[in-house]
UniProtKB/TrEMBL annotation:
Residues recorded as bearing Phosphoserine in the entry: 122
Enzyme Commission number(s) from the entry: 2.7.4.6
Name of this chain's protein: Nucleoside diphosphate kinase
UniProt keyword terms in alphabetical order: ATP-binding, Cytoplasm, Kinase, Magnesium, Metal-binding, Nucleotide metabolism, Nucleotide-binding, Phosphoprotein, Transferase
Cofactor(s) required, per the database record: Mg(2+)
Stored NCBIfam families: PRK00668.1 (NF001908)
GO molecular function: nucleoside diphosphate kinase activity
High-level lineage: Bacteria, Bacillati, Bacillota, Bacilli, Bacillales
Active site: 115 (pros-phosphohistidine intermediate)
Function: Major role in the synthesis of nucleoside triphosphates other than ATP. The ATP gamma phosphate is transferred to the NDP beta phosphate via a ping-pong mechanism, using a phosphorylated active-site intermediate.
Nucleotide-binding among keywords: yes
């Protein structure tokens, strides 16, 4: 089953949106297999956002993502990467459709409350960056026979 890395950013944690965001993915039928509240060290933030190094917003992005706790998660399901990107909405909340997480709960690109891997390859990389193998819990979700 495909996995993805999702993270409620510091603004989403402060705005008490963890439960709302987790609830949307649960109700969709996805399976949570790892989660933790953590403060990201600068070195991990730099690795995670390495592709943006050199861009004008990079320094602000690293200081924002390390500014307070995030809620890091691993979810699995069929096509989970594409599906959760759709549920998150466009990067800039002004372009994100109502009904998406960013469309419903955020106003500004640097405070867009959630991160989600953008391809299965980046999902594998990001899951490995944030979680040890033993932090991922494989279990049978009995309701899956009513979902798939
Ligand atoms: P994504 O989070 O939708 O995958 P990316 O392009 O990978 O979008 O950008 C990573 C994060 O960097 C965004 O979620 C947003 O918080 C921030 N960001 C992207 N573009 C800008 C910008 O033009 N100004 C400020 N922040 C930006």
């Amino acid at each position: 089953m495909e996995k993805t890395f999702l993270m409620v950013k510091p603004d989403g944690v402060q705005r008490q949106l963890i439960g709302e965001i987790v609830g949307r993915f649960e109700r969709k039928g996805l399976q949570l297999i790892g989660a933790k509240l953590m403060t990201i060290p600068v070195s991990l933030a730099e690795q995670h956002y390495g592709e943006h190094k050199g861009k004008p917003f990079y320094d602000d992005l690293v200081s924002f993502i390390t500014s307070g706790p995030v809620f890091a998660m691993v979810w699995q399901g069929e096509n989970v990467v594409e599906l959760t990107r759709k549920m998150m909405g466009k990067t800039n909340p002004k372009d994100a459709e109502p009904g998406t997480i960013r469309g419903d709960y955020s106003m500004f690109v640097s405070k867009n409350i959630i991160h989600g891997s953008d391809s299965p390859e980046s999902a594998n990389r990001e899951v490995a960056l944030f979680f040890n193998e033993n932090e991922l819990v494989e279990y049978d979700k009995l309701i899956n026979s009513w979902i798939y």
